[in-house]
Structures are given as C-alpha cells and as structure tokens.
Amino acid sequence: MLIAVLSGFMLAAVAPWLTRSLGDKAGWVLALLPALLFAYFLSWMPAVMHGDAVVVHYPWIPGLDINLSFLVDGLSLLFAVLISGIGTFIIIYAGGYLHGDEYLPRFFAIMFSFMAAMLGVVLSDNLITLFVFWELTSITSYLLIGYHHENKEARWCALQGLVVTVGGGLALLAGLIMLGNAAGSFELSEILGSGEILREYPLYTAMVVLILLGTFTKSAQVPFHFWLPNAMAAPTPVSAFLHSATMVKAGVYLMARLNPGLGGTDLWLYTLGIFGALTMFTGSFMALRSTGVKAVLAYTTVMALGTLTMLIGIGTEEAIIAAMTFLLAHALYKAALFMLAGALDHETGTKDILKMGGLRRLMPITFLTACVAALSLAGLPPLFGFIGKELMFEATVTAPALALFTAGLALISAIMIVAMAAVFALRPFLGDLKETPKKPHEAPLSMLIGPVILAALSLIFGLAGFLPAAALVNGAVASVYGTPLDVQLYLWHGFNLPLMLSVVAVIAGIVLFVKWDRVLELFARMPFIDRLGPERGYERIMDALVWVAEWQTRVLQNGYMRNYLITIVMTTVVATAWTFFVHTGQGVPLGEIDFRIYELVVVGLVVAGAIVASVTRSRLGAVATLGLVGFGIAMIYVFFSAADVGTTQIMVETLTVILLVLVLFRLPGFQNLSDTSSRLRDAAVAASLGGLMTILILAVNAVEVAEPISDRLVHWSVPEGFGRNIVNVILVDFRALDTLGEIFVVGLAAIGIYAMINLRAEDKGK
Amino acid sequence: MTEWVPVLVVFVPFLAGVVQFMAGRRVIAWWPVLASVATVAVSLWLTFAVAAGGGIEHFMGGWQPPLGIALRADGLATVMILLTAVVGGLVSVYALEAHGTGDPRASHFWALWLMLWGSLNALFLSADLFNIYVTLELVTLAAIPLVLLAGPEKTVTAALRYLQFALFGSLLYLAGVALTYGLAGSLDLALVGPALTDGGITGAVAATCMVVGLLVKAAVFPFHVWLPAAHGGAPAAVSAILSALVVKAAVYLLLRLWTGPLAGLADGLVAQLMGALGAAAILYGSIQAFRQERLKLVVAYSTVAQLGYMLLFFPMAVAQAWEGAVYHGLSHGVAKAALFLAAGNVLVYLGHDRVRDLKGLDRSLSVSLLAFGIAGVSIMGLPPSGGFIAKWLLLRASLETGQWWWAVVLISGGLLAAAYIFRVLRYAFLQAPDRPPATTGPIPPPIMALPATLLALLAIALGFTAAPLLALLGGLPEGTG
Fold first, then answer.
1. Cα–Cα distance between A107 and A196 in angstroms, integer?
2. Alpha-carbon distance values, B70 to B7, B187, B244 (Å)
3. Number of helices followed by number of strands (H, E) in chain A
4. pLDDT the model gives residue A558
5. Contact B46, A716 (CB under 8 A)
6. Which of residues 569-588 of A touch B (CB under 8 A)?
7. How far apart are CA A172 and CA A179, in angstroms?
8. What is the pLDDT, as a whole number, of residue A12?
C-alpha cells in the first residue's frame, strides 16, 4: 500500500527523463502506472465491498503521534479507483493534447506528484498524514493550473486557487487537531467510532466550522466558489482530472469521511444543507450564463459539488446512497465531457460555444460521445446520471429538515443543467458549419479513448445498476453512513414524486435550451451580477493587506533614527514603569536619603553641565560641559571611597573629550534643524526616561539587599587567589573569562573600525 | 576529558579567528578550512558527549560559582551549538567560494566570522549573567563589521542603526544584571533564582530590564526596525549567519532566563504580552515580506516574522510549547540560511535581486531556486518539514492550554508565509523569459549552490529527526509554567 501511494512520487522523479526518451509514445507508456494502480485497487474490492475496513500501518514519528497508516474501506477505495482509473485516461489524453509541448516532461512530473498526493489524501488513516497530502494537492495543483505561465491571467488564477485552498487548509489543520484532541487519537479508524464523544465535545461548533472552512474552500462551496472556474486556465487534461475525480472532490471526500463522526447534528445538517443547496443553485445559474465550453463544465462541477455537500448534510439513508451514486456518475460524465471540450478546443482553436457549429460531420465520434455523456449530465434515462438524479430528488423530498428548500433549489438547478447539457452536446455540432481559427477534424485516438470508454461506462452502469451497486457504491455507502445498507440501483422506480420532478426538469430545461440566446441577452443587460460576487471580497482583502502594510511603514518605520529611539525609549519606560507600579501600588517607597553639602555641590554641577550641554549652540561648549558631567561623576565615586573607579572614569572622560574635540573640526557648521514642537517632544521623552530612572533608584535603595558578597570575596581572596587587592583577584582569577572577553570586545571593535577604514580607502582607491 | 569539551568549543574557533587576523592573507588558502572543520568536529564531539552522558559542566579556572564562572552544556545549549555547527559549517563552504582567496576582504571575513562562531558558542554555554553580557557584546561587535563587508557605502547606515539598537539593548540588560547582583550576591544562573523571586520590586525591575534588553537585541517587534536593512544589506553568507544564528542567540537567552532564574517571577499578563509581541511580529513581518521589492529584504522580513513564533512559548509554557519553540529555532535556522544563500546566488548571477525582474531563472539557477523552494516549504510550516513539526507542537500546545488565539496566529502566519514565498517563486519559476535575462555575473558554481541545497534538505530532514533531537533537548526545565 505504501508503494502504491508513493509510486506516483517516484515516477514523477524520472518522468521528465522518460518523457524525453520515449517521445510520442510517452503518454501511453506512462499511463501504465495508473493502470496498474487501478488493477491493484480493484483487487482490494472483495475485501471491503461489504462495509469492512482494513488499516495498514507504518510509523513515521512515533514520539509525536504521527504515523503513516492507510485506511482502506469502501469510501477510500471508490476514490482510489476513480483517481487511478480516470488518471490512466488523463495521462494518455495529455500525451495527445500537449503533444510536442516543450514543458510536457515537467507537466508529467507534476501530474504524477499530484496524483500520488490525491491518493494519499483518500487513503490516509492518520489525520496529519492526510493533511500533508491535502496541502500537497494544493501546491501541485497550483503548479498545474499555472502551467501556461506565459499567460498572466493563468498565473493570477493559479495563485488565487492556491491562496484560497491553502488558507482553508490551515483552518482545516486547526480543526483536525481539535478533532484529534477531542477523540484522543489521530487515527481516523479510531476517531470515526467515537462519534458520541465528538458531538458532546465543548468546542464541537468551532471544530466543525474550522474543518468545514477547509473542505468548503477545497470543494469550492459558496462563498468560496469563485476560484474553481478560474482554475479552468489550466490545460484541459488538468481540468478534467481536477474536476472529475480529484482536488475539488477532496473536500467532499473529507466531509463524507467524517460524516459518521461529526454528522447527525443540527449544525452539520443545516450548514451543509444550506451551503450545499446554495452552491448547487449558484453553479447551475452561472453555467447558464457561460458560453465557453470549459466554463460551462466548470460551473456544472460547482453544481455537483454543492449537490454532494447538501446530500451529505441531509445524511439520511437515501441521501447517502444518492450522494455516492451521484459522485460516481459525476466523475464518469465530467471527465468525459472535459476531455471532449479539450478535443473541441484543440481541433477548432476556440473555446466559445457560440463560435462553433455544424461539427457533426467532421467530428462524428466526438459528437456521439458528447451526446451520451451530456445525457448523463442532464439526468436522462437510460444513463447512470439519471439514477443519481432520481435518488437525489428522493433524498431532498424525504429530508428531515429543509425539504422544501433543498427540493426547490434542486429542481431549479436541474432545469438549468438540462438546458446547459443540451447546449454543450448540440450547439457545436448541429446547424451550419462555422468558420473557426483552426480547420477542424476528428481528434486522435489518444484523445478519444478516454471519453468513449467513460461515456460507455455511464451507459452500462445505467442499464445494469447492480454492477456499480455491488462493487463500488455499496461499500462506500457503508463507510459514510457508518453501518452497511442494502443498496439497489434501478432505472425504474415507479411513478413517484422524484420521477415527476425529473419530467418537469427535462421539459422546462428543453424550453430553456431553445430560448438560450434570449436568456444570454437578458443577462448581458444585468452586469451588476458580477459586481456582487465574493471574488470582490478576495480582491478587497488582498488590497487591504497592502494598505495596512503601507500605513505602518509611514507611521512606525519611516527611516528616521529619532523615531526609532523614541520607540525604544518609550517601550522601555512603559514596561519598567508598569512593572514598578504593579509591585509598589500607588505609593513609591523611598529609602532614607542622607547627603552632605559637598555632595550637593557636585550634583548641582553635574545637573548644570547636563542642561547646558543640551541647550548650547556651540559644539565645543557641549563637549566641555559633558566633560563636566563626567568629572562630577568621578568625584562622586571618590566620595564613596571607590578611588580606582574614579580614576578610571577621569581617564575615560579625558580621552573622550580629546577625541570629540578632534572630530568636531571636521564637522559642518552648527544648524538647528528641529522645530520647537519636536524639541519639546524629545525633551519629554528624555525626561520620562530620566524621571523613571530616578524613581527606580530611590525605590531600589529602599529595598533590603542580600548579604553582601564582598564578605565572601574578602574571605577567599588571599587563601585561594594569593592576592590582597580583591578587585585584581576578581579580574584575573575568579572571573578571568570576563576580563578576557572584554579585552576581545575592545579588540573586535578595533578590528571592525580598522576593516571599515580599510575597505573605505579601497573603495575610494578604485 | 569530556569536561574540557565546552572550553574547546569556545576557544577553538575563537583563537582560530585571532590567528587568521594576525596572519592575514598568507594563510587564507587553508587556515579557514582547517579552523571550520576543527570547530565542527568539537561541536559534534560535544553533542555526542551530551547525548551519551547528559549535561557537562566546566568551571573556568577551577573557580566554582558564586566566585567563578561556569560553562554548562545542557540540552538546550547543545542543540543550539549543533545548529551553529551545521549552519556555520555549510555557510563556511559557501563563503570559501563566495569570498574567494583573492578578495582582500576574505581575511577580514574569516577572522570576524570565526570569532563570532566562538562567541556564539560561549553565549550558549555560559551560565553566568555577567559573562552572558560579555558574550552578547562579543557577538554584536563581531557581527556589525561583517555587515560592513558588503561595502561601507551601502551598509554603513544599516550597521550603525544595528549598533545603536544593540548597545541600547546591552545597556538595559546590564542594568538588570547589576540589580540582580546586588540582590543575590551571585551571577550564576542556577543560584540567582530564589533571590530574584523574593526580591520584590528590585527583582521585578531587574527582570524587566534584562527581558526588554534582550527583546531589543532579538529584533522583536517593535524593535525590529534595524534588522531588515542590516540582514538584507550584508553579504549573503553574513546574512545567513545573522538571521539563522545571531538574532536567535538573543531569543535563546530569553528562553534560558525565563525557564531558569526568572521562572519564579513569570506573570500571566506579562507572558501574554510577550506572546502578543510575537504575534505582532509574525503578522507584521509576513505582510512586510510580501510587499518587499528586493529578494533579500523579503527573506529578512521573514526573519522578523519567524522569530515571533519562538515568543509564543511564553504564554503557553507547557512542554510541547517548549519543544515547539526550540524546534522552530532549529528548523528556521537551517531553512533561513538556505534562503539567504540561494538569494545570494541570484544576486551573484543577476547583479540585482529585484523580485519583479527574476524572470526565467529556472534554467540557469535551477539548483539554487530548488533550494529556495524546498526551504520555503519549511518556512511555511508545510509537512513534512521541520517547520511543520515545530508549528504542530506549538498548535497542540495552544489548544491544550485552551489559548486558541495563538492557534489563529500560527495558522495565519503560515498562510502569509506561503504568500510571500510563492510570490518569489512565481516570478522566478513560472515566468518564461521574453528574452534571456540581461546577466551581469557568472552562473554561481555548484559549490555555491550546494550548501543552500543541503541546508534546504536538512530543513526537510528535520521533519523526520524530531525524536532524537527533542530527546537531546530534554523536557521543559522544572519550575516553569
């Protein structure tokens, strides 16, 4: 199983090389892998078709609860079979469609990675592994959608798809972690059995909302549906694959997968039911307005995704059976239709339905296949799509809640879909032959084999409903519903409400098809519909991000050192003052202040020096008064019997003053560049720091200090350090490492300055 | 013998740097190689010794605290030294080619870098508050001249800003150390805790000064303003070192102090505030990274954002948050170094790094861009990378402690990171050139692309090696939370 999932990645690594060496036959040869996988997954069928599940286990990071384990049951196998089966035809098709394209090798590499990631999503048992593969599908599909990267629009669409799905993916991760915490396990096989615990979980609502954000974005539910039609910018083989069996279905897969654990609550029912039904309606409505072959199909995909979501939300026996049947039917006809759309585009050179016509003689096989697949899309007997649609109607009318709402929207959507199916299958082929950019002829075998077989399957499954029922649908329904059900699929259900609805839909749909040109004119007069879309919201958010960043640059990061200094100083002042007041309450405990008159004189001199230095207009005067401050402090050291520190201070001050004076003469003349208000502001900032420090020193002075360490130092100095000068013993014995370090600090500063001067001289020399 | 390994780890690179400075260009062909290999070797020795036998303690000169200074190699220090050895070693390989033997700056580079390497190791090992101040100064004063190597005209403003911020931070930290010394009569990390806890207002103010000082050094929002210009302007090898290791050293100290001496002072509100600063850094840094026009500035702003994740440890303060924050430090270290080296190669080849003009590099710079993309996966926190493991641990911690708001930050941060990384790749990978790019430089040789690739692959490999590394790190120090 591990090899089956990862073989796609392995083939991806060598695909470019294989493609180059195989030349024309590359598509056919490479398709062997998905074909083999298809056979392999089919061989699992007997094991799970009665609702059993098998878990295959490989450890990844055991300490962190992250394992590679695969869950094979009816649902995952249905998806795996679809992915590998349709994937086989897509690879063959791509070999023909992108024939001679210079990027084809890279395309195959990404395509196989994508396929492997998709298999990983549907087969993972561990939530984290599932998420890993989930994100991999987002990224690889981004690369696939942006395949025509010369095209600016394609790149924009790809990025939009990525941002939406990755964003949703991150919400999903949070939801999955909550799910794992709630169930006490990250293995799906264990989580699904603990539905009771999950529904009682206090954060159930948040968990469901986060997970649904992930699945809704991935599966293009309203209001996130806008990215999917834009993703048509992808080459057609990619669209066919993304829309039929993969990518967008991943969200549906996860909702179906979690249904036994999370479903059965009002939140689940109403959220999925309402959003699903709205998506279904929006999709079919947008399809009606479209004239591009791929756009029509893309919007019908949105419709199908909405239908599936709605059915999973309803969650009754009928609904789950309908969902799985509809899913299978949709995968078959949608893959076929997209590949046919690609063939039309490839052979005529246009994507616009209105510009095609009369192709029935030139492309007869395409025409016939399109009719069969479109009948399935429209839900007409004897196609498999009809069974799916009947079941869907039945599920909506028998729904425990929202029955009128869902059934109503389902009927309206069905009408529009019938019309669009007819448009797709008839408009390009009937009527007079129209002038197209390329001279049309029948597509090559590689591009027809897939659609023909898939359309044939739609027909066979419709006529012999027991085949899919026993092999695929039965097991999948058991996984989604939680317990095995007896699934029987027939074309004929007797005269009942669903059949009536179908008849109404078909008749109304045909009327709509005949009047389609009028409808388009009508829409053309209502441009405001475009302005209401959620896509505007996406653009607004992107714009807002830029705006916020620009605003902060103006305010916070404007490049002036003085503003940076204010930021640092004020943050420090606020942080320290806050700590201080938290600990002292309102009052400030002041220590005893005991001073002598000569101390007062020195302090007065220091203060005066500082004031003069900051207001004087003469640089020399500022340096001199700063010196006064320094010497005053040295005097204070001496008063407190730290004569050696005082001496050091005097030496440092002297050196500083000399250096400053030397530099002063190289500076330009004194200018006052600040206005009064900014000087006052600077003064306030400085005063706040100074004031805070003063209060702190007074307060700290009042606190009892621990037993002075100097006693211990005195005690150890002679016997251990053999020295009577304690400071010396500390510097060269006890804490010699610090001394060494400080020497190197000075050394490094010197090296830095030396390097700078050296480099500067070099630069000037050049 | 093993108790001398910490000393070797500090002094081998440091003295090698001194020798390089003295000997200058005469030994440039072989001395840096020897010195780097020796440093990596002793670092690995230390790692294996600690992994096998637990923490190592060495008293400098035989003086025990409180008189003398101890070097302590515990799990946290050891993983940081290992990170420094890995990143430093690979950056050295890059620098051997990038700075060449003919460049007169090469000698300066190697002298400063080897001393910086030793200083970083000393900072990680030091168990003494004042000695940590000394190592902080050493790190700063070795790092700033390295920035200037890109050419004084271009970087002098950035370097001076860096200096001003760093000195202010050091000063504040030193004030806190002085207050602590008065209070506790000792500077050893293991001994000052009780005195600080009982120290009332003095203890609190001392802690505030040290923490704010380190926040300035760590370029945490709102003190980040110096970082992008300095990291973006420096030569590629230096940018990689600064972003991957130097700023992280200050964050490392925050973690070290918070879980050690300051553990008794931890206040819920302050912890939330630290987390809020981290969150602000994540969101703000990422948005800025998205908007930058120059590739190296994108990467530099990404550092501002990524450092924020480590601060999310403080409000959560549970074992998973501890592991997640440190693991984030490790995986960001290797991934960010890879990004900067890859960006450096772009700069070598194109002569500029304007994001919009990175057209069609996917042929000539395919290896470097691949490295950029792979490292980007870790920066985004996508599986199966080390960044994912780190975020995963942090996410679990946030949900476990009921502080879901950090989960929101973590998730949006990942999304924004995806946005800025993909923006770069979009221009570089997906745009076929209208005409061949007007190059001004040579295609960087494989030896310059290789370190970036290896670092990027390591960032992915960290997704699989979490168990032994977290075992080496050890659990959350007792008394925290």
1. 46
2. 10, 10, 26
3. 34, 2
4. 60
5. no
6. 571-572, 575-576, 579-580, 582-584
7. 10
8. 76
Residue B479 domain-assigned? no
Q: What is the pLDDT of residue A154?
A: 65
Give A-chain residues touching B363 at CB under 8 angstroms: none
Q: Report helix, strand or coil for A76.
A: helix
Given an 8 Å threshold on Cβ–Cβ distance, is B466 in contact with A61? yes
A689 dihedral zone (left: phi>0; alpha: psi -120 to 50; beta) = alpha
| A141: three-class secondary structure by DSSP | helix
pLDDT of amino acid B107: 85
Distance CA A90, CA A107 (A): 12
Best CA proximity match to A89, nearest among A268, A199, A196, A245: A245
Identify residue B147 by its one-letter amino acid code.
V
CB contact under 8 A, A759 and B426: no
Nearest CA in chain A to B160: A561
Q: Enumerate residue ranges in chain B where pLDDT < 50.
A: 431
Measure in Å the smallest separation between the Cα of B68 and chain A Cα atoms: 5
What single-letter DSSP state applies at residue A438?
S
Residue B81 lies in a domain: yes
Strands (DSSP E) found in B155-271 = none
Contacts 24+ apart (CB under 8 A), A368-371: A369/A336, A369/A340, A369/A448, A369/A451, A369/A452, A369/A455, A370/A337, A370/A340, A370/A424, A370/A425, A370/A428, A370/A429, A371/A425
Question: What's the confidence (pLDDT) of residue A710?
Answer: 67
pLDDT score of B143: 93
For the four alpha carbons of A722, A724, A729 and A734, in that order, the dihedral sign comes to: positive
What is the pLDDT, as a whole number, of residue B422? 76
Q: Which of A149, A703, A759 sits opposite B430 (nearest CB)?
A: A149
Contact B19, B45 (CB under 8 A): no
- Tell me the two tokens of residue B118: 């030793």
Candidates A155, A181, A556; nearest CB to B222: A556
> Among all chains, which residue has been given the structure tokens 């790094």?
B353
Residues of chain A with pLDDT under 50: none
Name the nearest CA neighbour of B328 among B80, B10, B17.
B80
H or E stretch including A657? helix A643-664
Return the pLDDT at A155.
Answer: 64
Exposure on the CB side of residue A350, measured as CA atoms within 13 A: 16
Angle, vertex CA B226, rays to CA B223 and CA B232, nearest 5: 135
> How many structural domains compose chain B?
1
- Asked if residue B117 lies in contact with residue B39, where contact means CB atoms within 8 angstroms, the answer is yes
Q: Does residue B10 belong to any structural domain of this protein?
A: yes
Residues of A in contact with B388 (CB under 8 A): 132
Crossing angle between the packed helical segments A619-639 and A643-664, to the nearest 10 degrees: 170
Find the DSSP H helices in B126-151.
Answer: 129-148
DSSP lists the bridge partners of residue B56 as B73
CA dihedral (A547, A548, A550, A555) positive or negative: positive
Residue numbers of the domain that contains B261: 2-473
φ, ψ for residue A263, nearest 5 deg: -70, 180
Helices (H) and strands (E) in chain B, counts: 20, 2
What tokens appear for A452 in the block? 């023909």
Contact A157, A231 (CB under 8 A): yes
What would the pLDDT profile of B395-406 be if each residue is shown by its tens digit? 888 878 888 788
Q: How confident is the model at residue B440, as a pLDDT? A: 64
Q: Give me the residue label for tokens 């840096």.
A: B32
Q: Is the distance from CB of A107 to CB of A93 less than 8 angstroms?
A: no
Please list the residues that pair with B72 across neighbouring strands.
Answer: B57
Give pLDDT, residue B429.
60
Please state, in angstroms and rounded to a whole number, the distance separating the CA atoms of residues A276 and B474.
49
Residue B478 is assigned to a structural domain of this protein? no
Per the listing, tokens 């300035």 go with: B216
- Chain CA centroid to CA A491, Å: 42
Residue pair A220/A160 in contact (Cβ under 8 Å)? The answer is: no
